[in-house]
Write a structure and sequence with these properties.
Blueprint (H helix, E strand, L loop, with lengths): L5 E8 L6 H11 L4 E8 L5 H11 L8 E3 L4 H11 L6 E7 L3 E2 L4 H12 L3 E5 L2 E5 L12 E7 L9 E3 L3 E4 L2 E3 L3 E4 H7 L12 H11 L3 E5 L3 E2 L13 H28 L6 E3 L6 H40 L2
Parallel strand pairs: 1-2, 1-4, 2-3, 6-13, 8-9
Antiparallel strand pairs: 4-12, 5-14, 6-12, 7-8, 7-11, 10-13, 10-15
């Protein structure tokens, strides 16, 4: 009888005392006999570590090993988790941020089935979002040179993305966003995330290109999770300019590192196919996912409208102070 693959759950965390218990309990619900959880406490100054210690003391099943980093942000925190986790043998790293509640309690079986169904050349997989590169991605100045976006129905409801339902798989040139899956073999053969891109942005893009260069295919699998758009803060809610700057800078770095191969990808036909994975499709679950997508899409629009109102209010206040 074949040995079951192992699963490492790597959770990057910064000050999520109000949510981390739910995040960890959901991971524990997904975990099975060969699972190991690595919460990466990245510069936490609130009660997050105390809450995790309480869960560790109360849990006698799945091992939980804390990893501490000094507020190094997303890329280096994920790499610290990958370094702490055992990458030998057959298995998968599920990397998620502290604003994701996994709700696919057959996750390990589905991931294992997917990789066996596609075959050994399946590389980087997202459970949220994927895209292809625009034809001029290697030479343009675009900070986000993507087309053919596909988003899990349990994502945020992006207006320009095709909806991916549970049990469906979409091949795409690049995977994006948490949660994602990186098999142990990729870590052994390709290494970890590119720290030249630290602290964050486009690390998944760079890793996807590296996978493609090594002969792997990437894609997006529809599973069930919850991630409210209001939960993600990227440290503070005043980071829009910084996010834009890192996005632009990191895409330039990617063109410097992988420009020739990126041009090769853009010159080829990139699949925009969505296919159903045998044994994973449940019509009732898909109907629930469509309802979730409608709610998330409406909530995203409400979030954007509220942000625009706050921005407009601040601008009016500045104008009044300047006496313009």
């Amino acid at each position: 009888m074949a040995h079951s693959p192992r699963f490492n759950y790597i959770i990057t965390i910064h000050n999520k005392a109000g949510l981390i218990e739910q995040v960890l309990m959901c991971v524990l619900m997904c975990s099975r006999e060969h699972s190991h959880i690595y919460p990466v406490l990245d510069g936490c100054t609130d009660r997050t570590e105390e809450i995790i210690d309480g869960i560790i003391n109360a849990n006698a099943g799945v091992p939980i090993t804390k990893v501490n980093t000094p507020d190094v942000h997303e890329i280096r925190a994920a790499n610290a988790g990958l370094a702490a986790a055992d990458q030998e043998g057959d298995g998968y790293n599920i990397i998620l941020q502290d604003d994701v509640l996994l709700a696919e309690f057959h996750l390990e079986r589905k991931v294992n089935d997917l990789y066996h169904w596609v075959g050994p050349r399946l590389g980087f997989v997202s459970f949220r979002l994927g895209a292809n590169f625009a034809k001029d991605a290697a030479v343009s100045d675009a900070a986000v040179p993507f087309v053919d976006l596909v988003e899990n129905a349990y994502g945020h409801g992006l207006a320009n993305a095709e909806v991916l339902l549970p049990g469906q798989f979409a091949y795409r040139s690049t995977c994006m966003k948490s949660p994602v899956c990186i098999p142990f073999t990729l870590v052994r053969n390709l290494g970890v995330l590119e720290e030249k891109l630290a602290p964050y942005m486009h690390d998944d893009t760079e890793y996807s290109i590296r996978c493609s260069k090594a002969g792997y295919m990437n894609g997006v699998l529809g599973i069930r999770f919850h991630s409210d758009v209001r939960w993600g803060t990227t440290r503070t809610k005043k980071k829009a300019k910084e996010l834009t700057r890192f996005t632009q800078r990191n895409m330039r770095i990617i063109r410097e590192i992988h420009g020739a191969y990126l041009a090769h990808i853009c010159s080829q036909s990139q699949s925009s196919e969505i296919t159903e994975v045998p044994t994973m499709v449940d019509q009732e679950e898909q109907a629930l996912a469509i309802e979730a997508w409608k709610r998330n899409k409406a909530q995203l629009q409400m979030f954007r409208n509220a942000r625009e109102r706050r921005f407009s209010s601040r601008m009016k206040s500045i104008v009044r102070r300047l006496g313009v």
